[in-house]
User: Fold these one by one.
Assistant:
Number 1:
Amino acid sequence: MPQVGLNQVRGAQAVLAVLRARGVRVLFGLPGSTEAALLDALREAPDLRYVLTLQEGVAVAMADGYARATRGAAVVNLHTTVGTLAGLSLLYNAWRDRVPLVVLASHKDTRILGRGGFTSLPDTTALARPLCKWAHQTLRAEQVGEDVERAFQQALASPRGPAYVLVPEDLLADAVPGAGSTPTAQALPPRAHPQAVEELAERLLRARRPVMVVGSEVARSAAAELAVRLASELELAVVWEPRRTLVEIPYPEEEPHFVGGYDPSHPAVAGADLLVVLGAVLFVEFSPPSSPEIPSHAQLVHVHADAAELGRLYPPALPVHGDPGLVLQDLLQAVQARRAEVEAVRLERAGWVAALRTRWEAEISRAEREAQARGITAFQVGRELGRILPPHTLVVEEAVRSSPAFLDGYPAQPGGLLRTAGGSLGWGVPAALGAQMAQPGRPVVAVVGDGCLHFTPQALWTGVRQGLPVLVVVLNNQKYLAVEAGVRRLRGGELAPGTPGVDLSGIDHAAVARGYGAGGLRVDSRQELGDVLREGFRLALQEGRPYVVDVPVEDEPGL
């Protein structure tokens, strides 16, 4: 190892200086031999915590959950080419959901790069580039700290997302100048052009049946309250963005202008002459739609901080590039300056909005009645958790095909729910553990499908080691329900006996949890559902470790 002279440090110590300057105190990772200099530097840095995982996807998803819970960047350490490859699946979710991750990977020594060496490829950055805003390999030791700082800049600039920096092991060990690190000032979110805001206000006042579609970016801008004020000012019907892309709750369900989730057949959407879409993705298609998801008779206004989202599938009549929280601020000012026009439109719209709200409430009541007549369902699990959990609980949900029913049952609030729109399974449990580390005084609950649990069960071991009291509720239907649904769709509703790739029976989820040192319980009847969930939650908090509660659930109708 090279000698370190006066006023010099190793490249690894330059990395830690950047992390400290950026306020980072936790790294998630699974190291190998190329991280030796980094691990040695961390040994002498008690203010920085390296959280060891047993699988790279766990490290990425824990960092992902940590970043979402803190609203800042999180750091994940992957081991050279093979570690990068293993972490890419869960990095896909962070990329889809615009989560600011700094992925710090350590590579083989520069003297053997390009020679086909062990665990290396000629261009490892090419692997990460499709899922990152920036992917770069450091070329010189004195650039190590500079490149890590640049990764933070890239990850946090709007639109946010992962950034990847690959540092060869010899550059981490080399001596570099020992100057401190000063983070670059963070870029401010984009503000819409005043003319675009005025045009949006004009369209809202001219429309007879305007609908506001609020997306996850409204929640990330901490602008739910502003959205409520605008809906109240203008008597707007409000729907959430489609559940496939909804990653946070952007608008409270109990607010009287909320009328459900976006669907082209929803009476609010079907009857709208103006759709104002704030901070939502339009759309991430699962399969070819049978008809356009934006009704042809409705004008579309799309507001998003990522200009690439505007018109990606459906060109808007008015594209507005800007942070939705700032747009809401400016729009409220523009509307309040036109009081006479506002009062006129309020009277005309109020009855329509009230009727839509009554319809939505009737649908939820019907779902509850139907659930009472069946065995345990995802809807009932949501209802029961809503009764048991404290109001400030954070729920991290990865229920996949059971998600719509669970969300209908669970009274989610802005700031109280995290989801992923990526679809790469195994995110839920490690993301919940990462969120618990970010907010240690807050109850955190993961609600996951049985298939999702077993993509990353190793996360439970890390949760035990870190003393993380997370309740993990497994919605156990003993199958890959999405696979079954696809086969049924292909065959016109029928599932032929012996279809492969569906059955997941025979797994004792509670026993798997206990094998990693976590707690494990099982619900055996509908009557004990509430008691077992309550006990699992109590034990997780009391014992300071994850508790898995296995809940056998019936399929929801129509899945």
Note: The chain has 21 helices and 20 strands.
Number 2:
Amino acid sequence: MRHAVDPLQGRLFDPFQQIIPPLGLKYLANGWQSIFRAVLLPLMPVGKLGDRLHPILGRRSKELYSVAGLLFLQEAKGWTNDEAVQAYLFHTDVQFALNLEPGIDEMSRATFERYRAYFLDNDLAAQVMNDITMKLVDELDLHIDQQRLDSTHVFSDMASFGRTRMMAVCNKRFLTQVQRHHAADFNALPEEWRQRYAPSQAKLFASKGLSAEQRSKSRLQVAEDMRDLINRFADHAGLKERPSYQALVTVFEQQCEIVADKIVIKAKTGGRCVQNPSDLDATYDGHKGQGHKVQLVETCSNENDVQLILTAIPQTAAEHDANSLTPVLADLKAKGLLPESMLTDTAYGSDENVQEAADLGVELVAPIMPNAETESADAPVSDETTMPPATPLEKLTIDDFSVDERTGKVGACPSGRIPLNVLYHQGTNEDKTTIEMKPEDCENCPFREACPVEKTKKGKYKLDYTAKQRRQQERRREEDTPVFRERYAKRSGIESTNGGLKRKHGLGKLRVRGSPAVRHALFLKVAGWNMNRATTSGKLASKAAEILRKLGFGGWWSACLSFVCAVIRVNRPWRPALTANAA
């Protein structure tokens, strides 16, 4: 039977005034406990959490608001399962935040883990983060017109293996399942196989002190064992559907290939491959290593008292930031939180991303990647020209030409001379424009050495460029201005947010592994960060205090009862009677 007590239901007496001293109550009124109790606890997904329970029949469940709230606080505070249960049973401030009856409500670890599993299966953490974020944005009157975007790497709770040991661990785990559930099939395997994978994972195919040739032989041996296991049990009804067997097939396809009926270990596999059979969803990033990552968008308006994270997009480590702007903008659009400007680093600043953001009415503010490939691609192109010699004059670019922003038509060169001919290759993939100038104008131009217009072998003065090249030249010119540097300085603030999430909420190294558990932890830790940031706002703390007063916490009746109890404790009218009886 579903059991849920409305957190906004009033109380005649405040039980916590008899347990927590006045100074403690003052701390609660200004802390996260009051904000969570009055503002966030009613947002918990009690409806979905109680779907599997009958409305009126059966044994009464745990109070569902408190259970969902405890699951949220576990990740927000970085508690283990045991620590979360102990907080539920013994921590009075947590009981206050969860709207519990002190000394009455209880929970076992098994019950907590059962509810947690149901929370993960239904991906309720994403709903919790979204509801909490939208509520805080509304309560704090947050300005969302300016935002900043960045990603941060997340390590899950898994060991870091080399390729040989990772494949060997896959073999060992599958053989363990064979031995446990099909002992006859395990005993039918060659004794050499069983002995080879008998050592623990830490000692399995240890490569310390081995030469490169010996390590290569060990890796090939593991790969041959893996193929033999796949072929041997490919038609086994009790084993071919097991996750350990499916992991064998996946890892073998990623790490090996068959050439002339011989196994060849791939020289490079890329980052999108299994790193550990314990976490099949983790991939590899060349700079950060194995694990996952999360895209974070935070407000950065100077008018906000505090800045909150508006959205979090979990990804695998192999996802490149350049491809992440699309899902981020789609998520913000679905929530109605699209900004006017978005500050990002160079990884997000491709021309395609700038145009995609502009189509949604968002200005993407990001430097262009300063690498040789981009520089050569952005340079004016012509198949009949050669590069001019170095000049002390400042080089002119396509952006120095007079172009009508509405039509894209070229009106004049940097010296004010009108082109002889302008040809627009509309409808082509490159969208190229060719400008031809009068030879006499270019020969007598004072900017001749710095101008990008080149003389061809036929004596013509031409410049070919694309719309993308012109936009990038315009962005490069803007990056060199003090206005851009001052505006872009806000982006670095999200780095401190990433660091705070890792130090205070354990985002850098999670206690879980696997995509469902990682998503659960990421969403709730980000929501916990937002709660802590909102706590520093006096505006929300005063709103929470007013709500609690209306509900009876710290009200007149509770104050009277507290006073009466204090008088009784001081006077102790029963003590003389006890003394007389003793005499």
Note: The mean pLDDT is 84.
Number 3:
Amino acid sequence: MLMSKHFPGTFREVEKGLSRSHELLLKSGFIYPQAAGIWHLLPFGFKVHQKICNLIYKTMEKYGVLNMSLPILQPKEDWEKTERWEGYCRTKTMFVTTEQHSGAFYGLAPTAEEMVTSLVATRTRSYKEMPIILHQIGPKFRDELRPRNGLLRGREFSMSDAYSFDVDEDGMRASFELMRKIYHEIFNQLHLNFIAVQADSGSIGGKGSSEFMALSEGGEDTLLTCDTCDYGANQERCLCLIPHFEPDSKKEQMKKEHTPHARTVKELEDCLKKEAPQMVKTIFWIADEKPLAVCIRGDLEINKIKLQNKVRATILEEASPEVIERVTGAPVGFAGPIGLKEKIPIYFDESVQGMCNFVCGGNEKEYHFVNVNFGTDLPEPKEYYDLVAAQPGFTCFECRNGTLQKKTGIEIGHIFQLQDRYSRLMKAYYQSQEGKQILIQMGCYGIGTSRLLQTIAEQNHDEKGLIWPECVAPYQVLIVPINITEESQRQLAQQLYQQLKDNGVEVILDDRDLRAGVKFNDAELIGFPWRITCGREAKNQKVELTCRKTGKMEVIGVEEVLKRFCKS
């Protein structure tokens, strides 16, 4: 490959405020935007992505996983069987199109559980045919409300997704552990700094899942890990022990206090001379268009994902001030649980259990109740729920000794134990050895391959540009003649280029008639692992060999170059 023939070249100016990896991929000419959340993979970017995919395909095959391809256009009827069509359409997650003649509805694949389960349900008959693990890499489409951060949050992207089919839960868990091993091997081959943590299963479903997170200061996910044991989880899934607060031992009589201008917990602390853990704050939500309230200790926050799972809502949003006032008769900051039960459901977090003489909203403007107690002023809840959002500094639930530490990361993989979530609804049975019809047990496993490209860039760059690992670099070696018009430099560069290419080395020659500084800057920006510079010593058949990762440079002869990079 010749740099003079490469498209589109590098860019010096890009949009401000981008993450470093996003900025560098744009500047170095790996990606280019077409519209919000829709990206061109330019020739260099395409080569990197292709290498990522090939590495995944080979690793899957190594462990007996079967590579294939599933449809992008997915019939509405299959999604209705799993009861997901309405939810995906209501949340505007799925792009939908219609067939011109019949008007039949299709979804553009946001995921592939329906397609692969339908396939296996029609083609698998006996226990003898399992276990099966099927894998594909293909495009996915999700109508992101706010696509952002380049390839990390797009409307069109590429994914590796695998699906396992087993005769029982033990087999499903064995397949799950095999895929966990495969994922570790893939991410290690890509030289990623990552951890596996517990995660929420979201719209995919199932009873157990793990996320693989590439650690990065620019990551969009918050992780909490224990500083004592190996427990770690996405913040939305993290279990914890909340900070202890000793309640009052003697109940006092409830009274209503005038609290002008005290809407927040901090303002109430100053006004009533009470601490936040002595308060119960009431937060109002709209779950699938119906209001509900959550009561939690004043120093804690609500985990939206936990709440959404608990109430089984497709759409969950915080209620507007207008809704809060309509339901409670009080403006935001003065609403509370007393008298609400007859109007809307109330969910009490475990943190309020056992509280005594607490403060809560008075459901009247500028008023709060103090010395409120369950059983006298407020009915004792029949059930308490774990709805608290874990925070750094809380105690680890697993070992009950360590402290949770905050890390940020980029989700690069997610594996799920689905059980019979899809096989039951799509009637995917197999015949057992005893002749019985039994539901297939499933797992599913996803890697965002296009986001992997940017994740690798996020973890492999410096102030000058990208530093690609050799396994995915668009070209292993760049040859730069300092002056392409100088005969000895040009001839040696062309000689080395041809010899390396003939020996199967991925090599690119910068044959542009530009200043050496421009070519060196481009080389460092693009991030080729090795640079061979043909300069003054070219007439002596010597070159400078520079490693992009370490910056180490050495002067060596042509024969040594060939020994370094040629296999034979």
Note: The chain has a mean pLDDT of 92.
Number 4:
Amino acid sequence: MTANAPVSTGNIAASLSFMASRQPTRAAIHCPVGRDAVGVAIYKTLTYAELEHEVGIVASGLIAYGIGPGVRTALMVRPSIELFVLMFALFRAGAVPILIDPGIDRRALRQSLNEARPQAFIGVPMAHVGRVLLGWGRSTIKQRITVNGSRLFWGGALYEQIRALGDKHGPVPPAAMAPDALAAILFTSGATGVPKGVEYQHRHFLAQIIAIRAAFRIQPGEIDLPTFPPFALFDPALGMTSVIPDMDPTKPGSADPVKLVNTIEKYEVTTLFGSPALVEVLANYGATSGKRLDTVKRVISAGAPVTPKTVQRLRTMLPDDAEIFTPYGATECLPVCTIESREILALAERTNRGEGICVGKPLPANQVRLIKVTDEMIDAFGPATEVLPGAIGEIVVCGPTTTEAYFSRASATRLAKIAHGGRIWHRMGDVGHFDAQGRLWYAGRKAHRVETGNGVFYPEMVEGVFNVHPKVRRTALVGVHVHGKAVPGICVELSQDVSKAEWKRIRFELRDLSLRVEATNVIRHYWRHPGFPVDIRHNAKIDRIALARWASKRADKADLGLT
């Protein structure tokens, strides 16, 4: 049996047991647990054998407390040793963890929890306070566990009591789970609407491990800095050491690059996983400081497109043979495609000409096709759904990591899924096109397209034309009404402070750029914005709908909309 051998049981938690049997003394996780006298993070380390033992004990305690197979369990714990032990312990017990971004709007959080109908709730004290005061899961939650703090008026058990209960009964092995058994409910970021709970079966997680290992050529023994906590949960299954960074995971765009670099150097990190916002912070720091990351051999950035400008800056920080991957996918299906930085840069001029962003070829296990863009439900593929070769269409995917349903959202499931050939295809909610080499080009979210009398405009095809300007950080296509007509406009976030007079010059330079490309030559309206609204999870997905509302209030201020 090799170190990359497949897990023999249907339970994703068995992957940790397998790796612990192969490399018991290797560090599984380094995690901040406090600060020293001068404010530097103090780290605690667990080996694979120690993590395996802790998971077995806590899983035993959870089962004894009534959180066993099939029990839906909301988990709201900050990145910590306890979070990773609990996540694997819930899998091992056969329970169904429910993961929701902690920073989402309170109303969306309440709706999400009410839809998921958790039977148990594990959280830090503040999460319990919110649960009680705002009525989260009031009618369904029976078991309550408090982590990293005191239990107050809400009752239930402390994490330490669960562990003591498990110690009394002894560790348990991973529960036997059918591949199709519900493993977890992971909520989408809600970037284009209310977050939806995606049903993950155990086979989806196992397929993701296989796909991630193959796509990025990951080997056991590597050291990972996962700045998006859920991604760290794959590390034990891949045999990697997780180094949890000293940062607020809900604000990757505000991460301290000096702390990140110091941590990378201290632990000789080989792999970095981060959102495009965090990668941009790190790349900009490297460009100004000249700092290099000599141990890093691989960077993986997902959640939104990474601009060629950022990719080029980051490359200068890495060894010549290092790779930067920008996989394409979604909570419902990940990864779908991937592309490496050298190819991104080789195709950058096509992005600048308005072709969109190349996300590479589909992974071998995936099937990807394009259908005509529509907001309506589709029952099956047919002539009415087909697009011509090279044409823009909605991206649909089928593969071993493609999830099949949203929890308690039957209408959303019908809208997002297509049953064909005995398999479920997922409508990504994105639009794009294939080139002659079979590479997929991402044109943006379907919900962000702008339909006008002059045609349909797609965000990533339009914005790439303007993002080349040296003083532009990023742009956003929006649709507004000017004198009663729907027209496309561009919101502009500058990379640095500029005067009003300088902005006047820049907006006309943007107009000049637009005239050079057919996809943008009718755009006349430009608005400077102080800072784009973005999603909570990645700080990178632009809320173009909110920007459209903002721009609409300014659309009639000048004949050309140049305000």
Note: Confidence is low (pLDDT under 50) at residues 1-8, 558-563.
